Amino acid sequence: MTTAERCDRIRDVSKATVYRHVDLLAAGGIVEVALERRVRGAVERRYRLRRDRAGITADIASSLSLDDHRSGFAAALAVLTAEFTAYLDRETADLVADLVGYRQHAVWLNPAELHGMIDGMWKAIAPHLVNEPSPDRTRYLTRPSLLPVEAPPPESRSDDTAAHSQSPGTGI
């Protein structure tokens, strides 16, 4: 995607800011130039994400301050909001037909269950990351996030909490 195309998708951010951030991402090795071509005397660059550099490793995460994490999370939410706003601004936006969702589930997990859930989510998503664009494919943004929100209770309860769980179903 070119920076100009990115600007068209993120309308509530100035072009100068988008260009500056793309330059920072390129300088940091997060994106790389996939193609360059001359357009009306200027060089147009098409960038691609370097998936091997786009994530935050455990070593990097542990070196960041809480404020760094707070800022990164806020930036991720801002991008998600911009993408959702761009979707809603389309004349063809149909949240029900497009199976748009923004659910949140609270689950109690021990460390083994947590790792199993993460592994299961990765196994569900990973095979689709290599899909190429085609006339029968729509590009979807999926954004799993995970954080503990409550400490374990002092004693385990004996009631059957599984009986109270609900299927996630489809939609919002």
TrEMBL record:
Residues forming coiled coils: none
Feature: compositional bias, Polar residues: 163-172
InterPro entries reported in the protein's UniProt record: WH-like_DNA-bd_sf (IPR036388), WH_DNA-bd_sf (IPR036390)
Signal peptide: none
SUPFAM superfamilies documented for this protein: Winged helix' DNA-binding domain (SSF46785)
Stretch list, region Disordered: 143-172
The protein's name in its UniProt record: ArsR family transcriptional regulator
